[in-house]
Amino acid sequence: MIPTGSRKPHRKSRNGCGHCKRRKIKCDETKPHCRNCIKHSITCDFPEILARKAASISQSPGGFMDSISTHPSTSSHPPPSVATPGSVSGQTISPHMGVDAIPLLEDETHLALNMVDLELLHNFVTSTCFTISQNQELRTLWRVEVPRLAFQYDFVMRAILAVSAAHMAHWKPDRADFYISRAIAHHKIGLRGPTTILPHVNKDNCSPLYIFSALTAILSLAMPRKPDDILFVGSEGVAEWLFLLRGITSIVQSSRDWILNGSIGAMIHRVNIPGVDPTLQAPYQGQPQPQGPASVDSNGGGGSASHMATPTTTATATTAIEHARPPEHDHLLELRRFIERDLSGSGLHDNIPIYMGAMDELERSYTHVYNLGPADCNLRSIFSWACQVTNDYLMLLSQHTPHALLIFAHYSILLHRLDSFWWVKGWGTHLITRIYHLIEPVYRQWVRWPIEEIGWVPR
């Protein structure tokens, strides 16, 4: 018989959930949910279970955008149950309760911070955004409006983090490999978004696509260069990033009015990032006209009829150039004449319109630089030419044909003039070095001007 006044012995709960411990009641230690928590419709918070969940999320390569999705349609977790004001999952919360006593929602037990990606986002809005443009208005757009779009479209956030990671690699060379791998991973994941929505462009997603194309272009220049890199083309043709950029630019061109009326409209209005200005489109339409045997070449010497031709430009191109002719016009005109002379009597004369079209676009890029100044056309002067030249020209460039390389050498001057931007720095010198060693000695006199402008010394 149990003596009167004595209590029945019981087993103490040493591994109970946090809620039971805070309420100082016995926990039956049933996992993952004890009976007390089930009774009160709250989620158990056994320490070892929460630790395992937090560790699995923090080690995920997807980063915080995978663990905390801001877009309703892409959320990886079910929405929390609706609770009335002053309650969580049916449990009343008193204003006098301590923080530790407030129960967590199901989703909140899974939250984890990816400090690397938070660092990248902070770097973008406090530093990188100011290095994309010299125009104060556009800097504000990159700092405020672009991140705002990124919280709606995951692929824009990925592009932001990728460019920021490349920026961090530039300033932290001791950790460059880590940040570059992060940039590649974010951009690779981000590519899935544009690929999916390109067939369905509308007024809501055209601006995010536009931003993604701009950040992709910047990232392509910011990534480490290989010794044989020619930027736009590779051994298999057009570079993948440029193929994407040209495709997005072409589609977004039809959405120009939507973008102009949106939150980033000033970017197109100021013609400052990859895009197309309809007033500057004038494909080459002329045909070379052979000269007589007595014709004189640009150096004052004689030439055979098979290798001589008069310089040809379209009426539209001439109008655009004469409207505000850049000082470089004479050098570009000499190159144009040489290409026409050199090919007019050969079996490659069919390529002349291709090269002349590329020259037309190059003169327009120089005109932009001369008339608008670097503050308003730094990005445009680089990428408008790449977006407007024909696929035929890019194919000839990938084959390292001498005339395509000569035109590209004159393009490298534009890159060099923007050498103060960290993501452009060194590209002009790299390209002229590579081109000089690719062309035969007989053509090297035609890259003398680019060499002098860039300040490179042949070795």
UniProtKB/TrEMBL annotation:
Specify where the region named Disordered lies, as residue ranges. Answer: 61-90, 279-313
Keyword field: Nucleus
- Designated name of the protein: Zn(2)-C6 fungal-type domain-containing protein
* Span of domain Zn(2)-C6 fungal-type: 16-46
What segments bear the compositional bias annotation Low complexity? 281-294
Source organism's superkingdom? Eukaryota
For this protein, the record's SMART domains field holds: GAL4 (SM00066)
Q: Which GO terms describe its molecular function?
A: DNA-binding transcription factor activity, RNA polymerase II-specific; zinc ion binding
UniProt cross-references to CDD domains, sorted A to Z: GAL4
Q: What Gene3D superfamilies is this protein classified in?
A: Zn(2)-C6 fungal-type DNA-binding domain
Q: InterPro entries, from UniProt?
A: Fun_TF (IPR021858), Zn2-C6_fun-type_DNA-bd_sf (IPR036864), Zn2-C6_fungal_TF (IPR052400), Zn2Cys6_DnaBD (IPR001138)
